[in-house]
Design goal:
Blueprint: H1 7-19, E1 24-33, E2 36-46, E3 54-59, H2 66-85, H3 87-92, E4 97-101, H4 106-111, H5 159-172, E5 177-185, E6 192-195, H6 207-220, E7 227-230, H7 241-249, E8 257-265, H8 268-273, H9 290-299, H10 301-312, H11 322-336
Parallel strand pairs: 3-4, 3-5, 5-8, 6-7
Antiparallel strand pairs: 1-2, 2-4, 6-8
Helix pairs in contact: 1-2, 2-9, 6-11
Length: 344
Protein backbone atom coordinates (compact mmCIF):
# COMPACT_ATOMS: atom_id res chain seq x y z
CA UNK A 1 0.00 0.00 0.00
CA UNK A 2 1.48 3.35 -1.03
CA UNK A 3 1.80 5.69 1.95
CA UNK A 4 0.18 9.11 1.85
CA UNK A 5 1.89 12.46 2.36
CA UNK A 6 -0.58 13.26 5.17
CA UNK A 7 0.48 11.88 8.59
CA UNK A 8 -3.11 11.16 9.67
CA UNK A 9 -3.67 9.05 6.55
CA UNK A 10 -0.33 7.32 7.12
CA UNK A 11 -1.56 6.26 10.55
CA UNK A 12 -4.83 4.97 9.10
CA UNK A 13 -3.04 2.99 6.40
CA UNK A 14 -0.60 1.53 8.94
CA UNK A 15 -3.53 0.50 11.13
CA UNK A 16 -5.28 -1.14 8.17
CA UNK A 17 -2.16 -3.19 7.43
CA UNK A 18 -1.70 -4.23 11.06
CA UNK A 19 -5.30 -5.25 11.82
CA UNK A 20 -5.93 -7.74 9.02
CA UNK A 21 -9.40 -9.26 9.04
CA UNK A 22 -10.25 -7.72 12.43
CA UNK A 23 -11.01 -4.46 10.63
CA UNK A 24 -12.75 -3.69 7.33
CA UNK A 25 -11.62 -0.75 5.23
CA UNK A 26 -12.60 1.06 2.06
CA UNK A 27 -11.80 4.28 0.23
CA UNK A 28 -15.02 6.27 -0.01
CA UNK A 29 -13.69 8.86 -2.45
CA UNK A 30 -10.52 10.67 -3.45
CA UNK A 31 -10.08 14.37 -2.80
CA UNK A 32 -8.13 15.83 -5.69
CA UNK A 33 -6.54 19.08 -6.77
CA UNK A 34 -4.38 18.85 -9.88
CA UNK A 35 -1.80 16.11 -9.35
CA UNK A 36 -2.53 15.89 -5.63
CA UNK A 37 -4.93 13.03 -4.84
CA UNK A 38 -5.66 11.85 -1.31
CA UNK A 39 -7.99 9.04 -0.18
CA UNK A 40 -10.92 9.37 2.22
CA UNK A 41 -10.92 6.17 4.28
CA UNK A 42 -13.66 4.49 6.23
CA UNK A 43 -12.73 1.66 8.59
CA UNK A 44 -15.21 -0.44 10.52
CA UNK A 45 -15.30 -3.11 13.21
CA UNK A 46 -17.86 -5.59 14.45
CA UNK A 47 -20.98 -7.22 13.10
CA UNK A 48 -22.11 -6.82 9.52
CA UNK A 49 -25.76 -7.24 10.53
CA UNK A 50 -27.39 -4.20 8.86
CA UNK A 51 -29.93 -3.81 11.71
CA UNK A 52 -27.33 -3.85 14.49
CA UNK A 53 -26.67 -0.76 16.64
CA UNK A 54 -23.98 1.46 15.11
CA UNK A 55 -21.52 4.08 16.35
CA UNK A 56 -19.60 6.27 13.90
CA UNK A 57 -16.74 8.71 14.61
CA UNK A 58 -15.92 11.33 11.98
CA UNK A 59 -13.22 14.01 11.73
CA UNK A 60 -11.46 16.42 9.41
CA UNK A 61 -14.49 17.99 7.74
CA UNK A 62 -12.86 21.40 8.22
CA UNK A 63 -9.21 21.04 7.34
CA UNK A 64 -8.13 24.02 9.43
CA UNK A 65 -9.49 22.23 12.52
CA UNK A 66 -6.87 19.51 12.24
CA UNK A 67 -7.32 18.45 15.84
CA UNK A 68 -10.69 16.96 14.88
CA UNK A 69 -9.00 14.51 12.50
CA UNK A 70 -6.20 13.85 14.99
CA UNK A 71 -8.64 13.07 17.81
CA UNK A 72 -10.55 10.71 15.49
CA UNK A 73 -7.36 8.90 14.49
CA UNK A 74 -6.30 8.69 18.14
CA UNK A 75 -9.66 7.18 19.11
CA UNK A 76 -9.36 4.75 16.20
CA UNK A 77 -5.92 3.60 17.31
CA UNK A 78 -6.97 3.16 20.94
CA UNK A 79 -10.10 1.28 19.94
CA UNK A 80 -8.19 -0.97 17.53
CA UNK A 81 -5.78 -1.96 20.29
CA UNK A 82 -8.69 -2.87 22.55
CA UNK A 83 -10.11 -5.02 19.76
CA UNK A 84 -6.85 -6.97 19.71
CA UNK A 85 -6.86 -8.11 23.33
CA UNK A 86 -10.06 -7.16 25.17
CA UNK A 87 -12.37 -10.17 25.13
CA UNK A 88 -15.29 -8.15 26.45
CA UNK A 89 -14.90 -5.72 23.53
CA UNK A 90 -14.65 -8.61 21.12
CA UNK A 91 -17.92 -10.02 22.49
CA UNK A 92 -19.57 -6.57 22.29
CA UNK A 93 -18.60 -6.32 18.62
CA UNK A 94 -20.53 -9.49 17.88
CA UNK A 95 -23.68 -7.40 18.39
CA UNK A 96 -22.69 -3.82 17.42
CA UNK A 97 -20.69 -2.04 14.73
CA UNK A 98 -18.21 0.83 15.10
CA UNK A 99 -16.81 2.81 12.17
CA UNK A 100 -14.42 5.72 11.68
CA UNK A 101 -14.05 8.30 8.86
CA UNK A 102 -11.14 10.36 10.21
CA UNK A 103 -10.10 12.62 7.30
CA UNK A 104 -13.13 13.80 5.33
CA UNK A 105 -11.23 16.78 3.87
CA UNK A 106 -7.63 15.54 3.57
CA UNK A 107 -6.33 18.26 1.24
CA UNK A 108 -7.85 20.89 3.52
CA UNK A 109 -5.99 19.28 6.44
CA UNK A 110 -2.74 19.23 4.47
CA UNK A 111 -3.06 22.86 3.37
CA UNK A 112 -4.58 24.19 6.61
CA UNK A 113 -7.75 25.44 4.93
CA UNK A 114 -11.29 25.24 6.26
CA UNK A 115 -12.71 24.45 2.82
CA UNK A 116 -12.03 21.69 0.31
CA UNK A 117 -9.79 22.30 -2.76
CA UNK A 118 -12.67 24.01 -4.59
CA UNK A 119 -13.16 26.51 -1.79
CA UNK A 120 -16.39 24.94 -0.50
CA UNK A 121 -17.15 24.62 3.22
CA UNK A 122 -18.30 21.00 3.35
CA UNK A 123 -20.47 21.63 6.40
CA UNK A 124 -22.47 24.20 4.40
CA UNK A 125 -22.69 22.06 1.25
CA UNK A 126 -25.80 19.91 1.70
CA UNK A 127 -28.97 20.91 -0.24
CA UNK A 128 -30.72 22.30 2.84
CA UNK A 129 -31.73 25.91 3.47
CA UNK A 130 -31.93 27.28 6.99
CA UNK A 131 -34.89 29.22 8.40
CA UNK A 132 -32.89 32.18 9.71
CA UNK A 133 -29.19 31.48 9.10
CA UNK A 134 -26.48 33.42 10.84
CA UNK A 135 -25.15 36.12 8.51
CA UNK A 136 -22.11 34.87 6.56
CA UNK A 137 -21.32 32.22 9.19
CA UNK A 138 -24.52 30.43 8.18
CA UNK A 139 -23.29 29.93 4.61
CA UNK A 140 -23.50 31.88 1.34
CA UNK A 141 -23.10 31.44 -2.43
CA UNK A 142 -21.23 34.66 -3.27
CA UNK A 143 -17.67 33.45 -3.80
CA UNK A 144 -15.32 30.59 -2.96
CA UNK A 145 -12.80 33.24 -1.93
CA UNK A 146 -14.89 33.97 1.16
CA UNK A 147 -15.24 31.61 4.14
CA UNK A 148 -18.43 29.56 4.65
CA UNK A 149 -19.06 29.28 0.90
CA UNK A 150 -21.81 26.74 0.16
CA UNK A 151 -21.03 26.03 -3.49
CA UNK A 152 -23.13 26.86 -6.52
CA UNK A 153 -26.87 26.35 -6.32
CA UNK A 154 -28.26 23.13 -7.87
CA UNK A 155 -24.81 21.59 -8.30
CA UNK A 156 -24.09 18.15 -6.81
CA UNK A 157 -22.50 18.08 -3.40
CA UNK A 158 -18.72 18.15 -3.32
CA UNK A 159 -17.01 14.79 -3.76
CA UNK A 160 -15.80 14.79 -0.13
CA UNK A 161 -19.33 15.48 1.15
CA UNK A 162 -20.73 12.76 -1.10
CA UNK A 163 -18.18 10.30 0.25
CA UNK A 164 -19.09 11.10 3.84
CA UNK A 165 -22.82 10.85 3.20
CA UNK A 166 -22.49 7.55 1.36
CA UNK A 167 -20.16 6.09 3.98
CA UNK A 168 -22.48 6.97 6.86
CA UNK A 169 -25.61 5.83 5.04
CA UNK A 170 -24.01 2.46 4.29
CA UNK A 171 -23.59 1.89 8.01
CA UNK A 172 -26.80 3.30 9.50
CA UNK A 173 -29.55 2.95 6.88
CA UNK A 174 -31.08 -0.22 8.38
CA UNK A 175 -29.77 0.12 11.93
CA UNK A 176 -32.29 0.16 14.76
CA UNK A 177 -30.08 2.56 16.75
CA UNK A 178 -27.24 4.76 15.51
CA UNK A 179 -25.04 7.47 16.99
CA UNK A 180 -22.48 9.48 15.07
CA UNK A 181 -19.93 11.93 16.50
CA UNK A 182 -18.35 14.54 14.23
CA UNK A 183 -15.22 16.08 15.77
CA UNK A 184 -14.63 19.83 15.29
CA UNK A 185 -12.99 22.70 17.17
CA UNK A 186 -13.15 26.44 17.38
CA UNK A 187 -15.99 27.63 19.60
CA UNK A 188 -15.93 28.75 23.22
CA UNK A 189 -14.06 27.90 26.39
CA UNK A 190 -15.82 24.58 26.93
CA UNK A 191 -16.16 21.38 24.93
CA UNK A 192 -19.68 21.06 23.61
CA UNK A 193 -21.80 18.17 22.35
CA UNK A 194 -24.25 19.58 19.83
CA UNK A 195 -27.26 17.77 18.42
CA UNK A 196 -29.46 18.83 15.45
CA UNK A 197 -30.88 20.84 14.07
CA UNK A 198 -28.42 23.35 12.62
CA UNK A 199 -30.96 24.66 10.09
CA UNK A 200 -33.77 25.64 12.43
CA UNK A 201 -34.55 26.40 16.04
CA UNK A 202 -37.50 24.03 15.89
CA UNK A 203 -36.92 21.14 18.30
CA UNK A 204 -35.20 18.03 16.98
CA UNK A 205 -37.73 15.22 16.27
CA UNK A 206 -35.79 12.83 18.53
CA UNK A 207 -35.51 15.35 21.34
CA UNK A 208 -36.51 12.74 23.91
CA UNK A 209 -33.70 10.45 22.76
CA UNK A 210 -31.16 13.30 22.91
CA UNK A 211 -32.20 14.21 26.45
CA UNK A 212 -32.12 10.57 27.53
CA UNK A 213 -28.55 10.28 26.23
CA UNK A 214 -27.60 13.47 28.09
CA UNK A 215 -29.01 11.97 31.28
CA UNK A 216 -26.99 8.80 30.69
CA UNK A 217 -23.83 10.87 30.30
CA UNK A 218 -24.60 13.02 33.36
CA UNK A 219 -25.45 10.08 35.59
CA UNK A 220 -22.52 7.93 34.50
CA UNK A 221 -19.91 10.68 34.58
CA UNK A 222 -21.36 13.49 36.73
CA UNK A 223 -18.12 15.47 36.57
CA UNK A 224 -17.72 15.40 32.79
CA UNK A 225 -16.67 18.61 31.02
CA UNK A 226 -19.12 18.67 28.09
CA UNK A 227 -21.97 21.11 27.57
CA UNK A 228 -24.75 19.16 25.85
CA UNK A 229 -27.10 21.38 23.83
CA UNK A 230 -28.83 21.95 20.46
CA UNK A 231 -26.55 23.53 17.87
CA UNK A 232 -29.23 26.03 16.84
CA UNK A 233 -29.04 27.55 20.30
CA UNK A 234 -25.68 29.01 19.21
CA UNK A 235 -26.27 29.72 15.51
CA UNK A 236 -28.14 28.29 12.53
CA UNK A 237 -26.62 27.40 9.16
CA UNK A 238 -27.49 26.35 5.65
CA UNK A 239 -26.32 23.03 4.28
CA UNK A 240 -25.47 21.06 7.42
CA UNK A 241 -24.47 17.52 6.42
CA UNK A 242 -25.85 15.96 9.61
CA UNK A 243 -29.22 17.62 9.18
CA UNK A 244 -29.20 16.21 5.66
CA UNK A 245 -28.20 12.72 6.81
CA UNK A 246 -30.83 12.71 9.52
CA UNK A 247 -33.57 13.81 7.12
CA UNK A 248 -32.48 11.22 4.57
CA UNK A 249 -32.47 8.56 7.27
CA UNK A 250 -35.93 9.72 8.42
CA UNK A 251 -35.06 8.62 11.91
CA UNK A 252 -38.05 8.23 14.13
CA UNK A 253 -40.51 8.14 11.23
CA UNK A 254 -39.10 4.73 10.28
CA UNK A 255 -38.89 3.50 13.84
CA UNK A 256 -35.09 3.65 13.66
CA UNK A 257 -33.44 5.91 16.20
CA UNK A 258 -30.56 8.11 15.05
CA UNK A 259 -28.67 10.68 17.12
CA UNK A 260 -26.04 12.68 15.17
CA UNK A 261 -23.76 14.55 17.56
CA UNK A 262 -21.07 17.14 16.94
CA UNK A 263 -18.13 17.48 19.32
CA UNK A 264 -17.14 21.15 19.24
CA UNK A 265 -13.85 21.34 21.14
CA UNK A 266 -13.50 24.69 22.89
CA UNK A 267 -10.39 26.06 21.21
CA UNK A 268 -10.57 29.35 23.10
CA UNK A 269 -9.10 27.42 26.04
CA UNK A 270 -5.89 26.89 24.07
CA UNK A 271 -5.73 30.47 22.79
CA UNK A 272 -6.39 31.90 26.26
CA UNK A 273 -3.33 30.11 27.60
CA UNK A 274 -1.17 30.94 24.58
CA UNK A 275 -2.46 34.13 22.86
CA UNK A 276 0.36 34.21 20.30
CA UNK A 277 -1.44 31.36 18.52
CA UNK A 278 -3.74 33.99 17.05
CA UNK A 279 -0.94 34.98 14.68
CA UNK A 280 -1.00 31.56 12.99
CA UNK A 281 -3.72 30.50 10.55
CA UNK A 282 -4.34 27.26 12.46
CA UNK A 283 -3.73 28.79 15.88
CA UNK A 284 -7.34 29.68 16.81
CA UNK A 285 -8.48 26.10 16.15
CA UNK A 286 -5.79 23.73 17.44
CA UNK A 287 -3.71 23.09 20.57
CA UNK A 288 -0.19 23.93 19.39
CA UNK A 289 1.71 23.38 22.66
CA UNK A 290 2.90 19.79 22.99
CA UNK A 291 1.40 18.86 26.36
CA UNK A 292 -1.96 20.47 25.50
CA UNK A 293 -2.04 18.60 22.21
CA UNK A 294 -1.36 15.29 23.98
CA UNK A 295 -4.00 16.04 26.61
CA UNK A 296 -6.58 16.76 23.91
CA UNK A 297 -5.82 13.51 22.09
CA UNK A 298 -6.56 11.47 25.22
CA UNK A 299 -9.36 13.70 26.55
CA UNK A 300 -12.28 12.02 24.77
CA UNK A 301 -11.57 8.32 25.32
CA UNK A 302 -14.14 8.19 28.11
CA UNK A 303 -16.81 9.57 25.76
CA UNK A 304 -16.00 6.89 23.18
CA UNK A 305 -16.31 4.21 25.86
CA UNK A 306 -19.68 5.58 26.98
CA UNK A 307 -21.06 5.67 23.44
CA UNK A 308 -19.99 2.09 22.74
CA UNK A 309 -21.64 0.90 25.94
CA UNK A 310 -24.73 2.98 25.15
CA UNK A 311 -25.34 1.38 21.75
CA UNK A 312 -24.64 -2.05 23.26
CA UNK A 313 -27.22 -1.46 26.02
CA UNK A 314 -30.13 0.38 24.40
CA UNK A 315 -32.64 -0.85 26.97
CA UNK A 316 -31.11 1.52 29.52
CA UNK A 317 -31.71 4.77 27.61
CA UNK A 318 -33.05 4.27 24.05
CA UNK A 319 -35.67 1.52 24.21
CA UNK A 320 -38.12 3.67 26.14
CA UNK A 321 -41.88 3.66 26.38
CA UNK A 322 -43.88 6.46 24.77
CA UNK A 323 -44.55 7.89 28.22
CA UNK A 324 -40.84 7.90 29.12
CA UNK A 325 -39.95 9.62 25.84
CA UNK A 326 -42.64 12.23 26.46
CA UNK A 327 -41.17 12.93 29.89
CA UNK A 328 -37.71 13.36 28.41
CA UNK A 329 -39.11 15.57 25.66
CA UNK A 330 -40.83 17.84 28.19
CA UNK A 331 -37.67 18.11 30.30
CA UNK A 332 -35.65 18.88 27.16
CA UNK A 333 -38.05 21.62 26.07
CA UNK A 334 -37.83 23.23 29.48
CA UNK A 335 -34.04 22.94 29.46
CA UNK A 336 -33.21 24.01 25.92
CA UNK A 337 -36.23 25.61 24.25
CA UNK A 338 -37.76 27.85 26.89
CA UNK A 339 -35.57 30.87 26.07
CA UNK A 340 -36.25 33.77 23.73
CA UNK A 341 -35.88 32.85 20.08
CA UNK A 342 -36.76 29.20 20.42
CA UNK A 343 -39.93 27.65 19.07
CA UNK A 344 -41.64 24.69 20.67
Amino acid sequence: MAMSTLPEIQQIEARIESMGSAMRSEILEYSQDGDLRLPIYKVSFGTTDPQAPVLGIVGGVHGLERIGAQVTVSLLNSFAELVRWDRQMQRTLQDVRVFFIPTVNPIGILRKTRSNPRGVDLMRNAPIDADKPARWLGGHRYSAKLPWYRGKENEPMEVEAQGLVRGVQQEIKDSQLAITLDCHSGFGLQDRLWFPYARTQDPFPELGLAHSFKNLLDQTYPHHFYKFEPQAGTYTTHGDLWDYLYLQHQGIERGKQYLPLCLEMGSWMWVKKHPSQLFRADGPFNPLIGHRHQRTLRRHNTLLELMIRAIANPSVWAALTAEQLDQHRLQAQNLWYAGVGFRR
